[in-house]
Design a protein that fits this description.
The complex is a heterodimer.
Chain A lengths: L1 H16 L1 H21 L4 E9 L1 H5 L12 H12 L2 H10 L9 H14 L1 E4 L6 E8 L2 H58 L11 H34 L10 H6 L11 H18 L5 H30 L1 H9 L1 H36 L3 H42 L1 H4 E5 L12 H26 L6 H8 L3 E6 L4 H39 L1
Antiparallel strand pairs in A: 1-3, 1-4, 2-3
Chain B lengths: L2 H12 L10 H5 L12 H5 L5 E3 L3 H6 L11 H19 L10 E6 L6 H13 L5 E6 L7 H5 L8 H5 L6 H4 L1 E3 L4 E4 L8 H6 L1 H13 L3 E6 L8 H8 L2 E7 L5 H10 L5 E9 L13
Parallel strand pairs in B: 1-4, 2-6, 2-7, 3-5, 3-6, 7-8
Antiparallel strand pairs in B: 4-5
The chains are: A alpha+beta, B alpha/beta.
């Protein structure tokens, strides 16, 4: 610590040694600097405040980005959008800022300068509130540039998004057209196909093999029914063609004992004959057939049978000969019913036969087209699927277009929210800069500092010895001792005077500064 | 007590009241060593009729800030006490081999006005306050001698120059006694153009030899010209045993000092004294004594 203190002190002593150089440097710097500061042209600032809904302005820009950036980023984005090269060129053109430009590099410089000096800031707690400022030596230019910026902002916020929306609309429309076409084609294809393969179209969405099964079953059923009906008919025919119908008499015995032609014929001897038969059976149970009772009965039975036969002959011939007998038969209601039933049965059989034939054909057709039907089904499926897909796309495009239309409507109606002018730029009357007071103070301090530094520099250029360490280090000789400075009274006075004069000069410098500031501040008042 | 001794006493009382011991002068002339006892050199010089006696204006010295023997305490006193100690050790007690001229001390600097004369006179005064030693202060800056001026003594016409160019042959005629009993002066005796040649002459060599060997409790201090101004000091440094380099603290350029040192022979005993030191470390921590 002691060492560094000593070091600092030795620096100070060095500076003091060259103290008049401080003035030598400081005075020209200060005077020159003050003159320069005075000569700086006044700068006027014009600013406008706008409310920008960055959501809507930036949303088209941020399309695709899912991360919502923070507001500082917003400012930067807005600034970059606003101060893009085309915008700046427009501003330059609008305000005739390029009248003095002769070369492209100058132009470039101008653009760069504008880019730097137009500031877009937003208030910290009101992030949507932006302040656009521009500083220029000409107050009118300042105001106009800000005004043109506002105009650009308005135009761009209106124009760009609308352009976007239009493009989107056009695109959607085109796509919808394309898909409409596709859909129509698919529909047509489907129709054509259905038409060509009408017979093979599935019913109730049943597949080929299912249908084959169904057809086979149907066939079987129909065949069964046909058989049944046939049987019924035959039966009925038998009933009708053979014998007279008898009410209440079972035709059992008659049918059993006689041939077909005897069917329905009855004689008076039938009952007796039955009786005798029964008697005989009884006898035969207890006695053999050689028993005299049995023989008697047997002879009786033969005699009755002969009589019956004769009667039967008579009946037969009677029936065969005359119609009256048939009428009798026909008049029998049962017989009539049988005849009706037979008619029906005939008809049914015929119908069923037709049905069976049809089913048979169907089954055989199926069996023939074992290969083609599944193919057709597959093709149909494919066509259907295509159609469905096209249909879906088409529908989604249409709905998207509708929603785009709706959102555009919404945006359009909300345009005045997107960008609102809060404070228009005014024509500045008082200059905002340069900060002359600050600058001249800086010049003063800088000049003195430069002087001090120069003095220090000089002292370091010509270093001296002023302590034991230096003696040892640089001279490499033993130090016998140090003798302190002895000031004579005259010398002391001289020293004091000299220091005072130095201080006075410094004071003069500072007073000059004060005078300059006062002069500058009050000169306009004096003049005006 | 012989008349001589009485005379000596009288002289002694005029000075600063140093105790004198009388010794027959002749024996001094033969250069007998007397050890560390106080010796009366005046007896030697008393043999001549032309021994000059001057009065040093102590007030004037004090006004210039130079140390005077009546100061017994104070910063300057302490500083020179520190400075003279190694010089005296080197001169009288050193174990190092020497050529016998270690009691010859040259005070020089790199540039003029660094404080050689100030330091020479102060050093002389400080050594005079010693119990054991005496001082002969020589104005060796033949071009610009300043010791007598500081002391307020009129410049006598004869001095070192006259010795060297043969105008004077008797040393005793030239050496001045002062009101300080232990301090004698050898003035330059008027400025001379080719001081360099004078100092480089064999006459100087002989004189120096004689001066150093005559009294071995005497320190001879040469107030020389600056090293960089002329070459006298370089020559002189070859004749003396010790060289003190005065450096003006914080003013003399380091490179110049190194330059000056470079001019001296490498086998010189050189010591540095920082003069006009401002704001150095505290050299005293209060005072001791009164």
């Amino acid at each position: 610590m002691n060492d560094s203190l000593h070091l600092i002190l030795s620096y100070l002593r060095g500076i003091w040694r060259y103290r008049w150089f401080i003035h030598l440097i400081a005075w020209p710097i200060c005077i020159g600097g003050w003159v320069f500061v005075y000569s700086l042209p006044d700068k006027y600032e014009s600013s406008a405040r706008v409310f920008v809904d960055t959501e809507s302005v930036l949303r088209p820009l941020l399309k695709g980005l899912t991360v919502r950036t923070d507001f500082a980023e917003d400012v930067r984005l807005v600034t970059n959008t606003l101060l893009s090269r085309p915008n700046i060129e427009k501003i330059v053109a609008m305000n005739d800022l390029d009248l003095n430009i002769e070369s492209p590099s100058q132009e470039e410089q101008l653009y760069k300068k504008l880019e730097k000096t137009i500031t877009v800031k937003n208030a910290r707690y009101k992030p949507n509130l932006y302040t656009i400022t521009y500083v220029n030596e000409n107050p009118v230019v300042a105001k106009n540039v800000v005004q043109s910026l506002l105009t650009l902002l308005m135009e761009s916020s209106l124009g760009d998004s609308r352009k976007d929306a239009d493009l989107a609309q056009k695109f959607l429309n085109k796509q919808i057209q394309i898909y409409e076409e596709k859909l129509r084609l698919a529909e047509d294809k489907l129709k054509e196909f259905k038409r060509k393969n009408i017979g093979l179209m599935p019913n109730d969405n049943k597949g080929y093999f299912e249908r084959l099964q169904v057809a086979t079953k149907d066939l079987e059923k129909a065949e069964l029914e046909l058989r049944e009906e046939k049987n019924r008919r035959d039966e009925l025919r038998r009933q009708q063609a053979g014998e007279e119908p008898s009410v209440g008499i079972t035709s059992f015995s008659v049918l059993n004992n006689s041939k077909d032609s005897d069917a329905g014929l009855t004689t008076s001897y039938d009952a007796r004959l039955k009786e005798l038969q029964n008697k005989l059976d009884d006898l035969l149970l207890t006695y053999t057939s050689r028993h005299p009772d049995a023989v008697n009965v047997k002879n009786l039975i033969v005699r009755v049978e002969q009589q019956r036969e004769k009667e039967l002959e008579k009946l037969r011939s009677a029936r065969a000969a005359s119609v009256v007998e048939e009428e009798d038969i026909n008049n029998n209601p049962v017989y009539q019913r049988v005849r009706i039933a037979l008619g029906e049965a005939d008809a049914n059989v015929a119908a069923l036969q037709v049905r069976v034939a049809a089913f048979k054909k169907r089954v055989s057709d199926f069996k023939e087209s074992v290969n083609t039907v599944p193919q057709v089904e597959a093709e149909l499926k494919r066509l259907n699927r295509d159609y469905e897909i096209h249909k879906q796309n088409y529908e989604s495009l249409v709905s998207r277009r509708e929603s785009a239309l709706i959102s555009e409507q919404a945006e359009r109606s909300g345009d005045n929210i997107k960008f609102r002018l809060i404070e228009p730029p005014i024509l500045p009357v008082d200059p905002v800069g340069p900060k002359r007071l600050l600058f001249s103070a800086a010049v003063l301090i800088g000049g003195i500092a430069a002087g001090v530094l120069f003095a220090l520099f000089l002292s370091q250029l010509k270093p001296t010895i002023d302590n034991r360490k230096d003696v040892r280090a640089f001279l490499e000789l033993p130090m016998l001792g140090a003798v302190s400075m002895v000031w004579s009274d005259r010398q002391i006075v001289k020293n004091r005077l000299e220091a005072i004069s130095f201080g006075l000069v410094l004071l003069v410098l500072i007073t000059a500064f004060g005078g300059y500031v006062a002069f500058y501040k009050y000169l306009p008042n004096i003049i005006s | 007590m012989s008349s001589i001794e009485k005379y000596i006493d009288k002289l002694g009382k005029e000075g600063n009241g140093q105790d004198d011991k009388e010794v027959p002068g002749e024996k001094f002339a033969n250069g007998q060593s007397r050890g560390g006892r106080i010796q009366e050199k005046k007896s030697y010089e008393n043999n001549s009729t032309n021994a000059g006696h001057v009065t040093i204006n102590l007030a004037k010295l004090q006004a210039s800030g130079i140390l005077t023997p009546d100061q017994t305490s104070g910063r300057l006193v302490d500083e020179f006490r520190a400075i003279k100690r190694p010089i005296l050790n080197q001169a009288f007690n050193s174990q190092l081999p020497s050529e016998g001229n270690n009691n010859l001390v040259m005070v020089t600097s790199s540039f003029p006005n660094e404080g050689k004369t100030f330091n020479s006179i102060s050093l002389a005064m400080s050594i005079v306050m010693e119990m054991d030693y005496t001082v002969l202060l020589v104005e060796a800056d033949l071009a610009k001698p300043s010791i007598l001026r500081y002391m307020g003594i009129d410049d006598p016409s004869k001095g070192l120059t006259s010795l060297l160019n043969g105008d004077e042959t008797n040393l005793s005629n030239v050496i001045l006694q002062t009101n300080i009993s232990k301090l004698n002066l050898l003035p330059a005796g008027g400025s001379h153009a080719n001081s360099y040649e004078l100092i480089a002459s064999s006459g100087m060599k002989n004189l120096v030899k004689e001066l150093s060997s005559r009294y071995d409790d005497r320190v001879i201090i040469f107030d020389s010209p600056p090293l960089l101004s002329c070459n006298d000091a370089v020559v002189l440094s070859n004749l003396v045993g010790q060289t003190i380099l005065i450096v003006e603290s914080g003013k003399t350029e380091r490179s110049a000092i190194i330059d000056a040192i470079g001019r001296l022979e490498s086998n010189q005993n050189i010591g540095v004294v920082l003069n006009k030191n401002i704001g150095g470390a505290k050299s005293t921590y209060g005072y001791y004594g009164s």
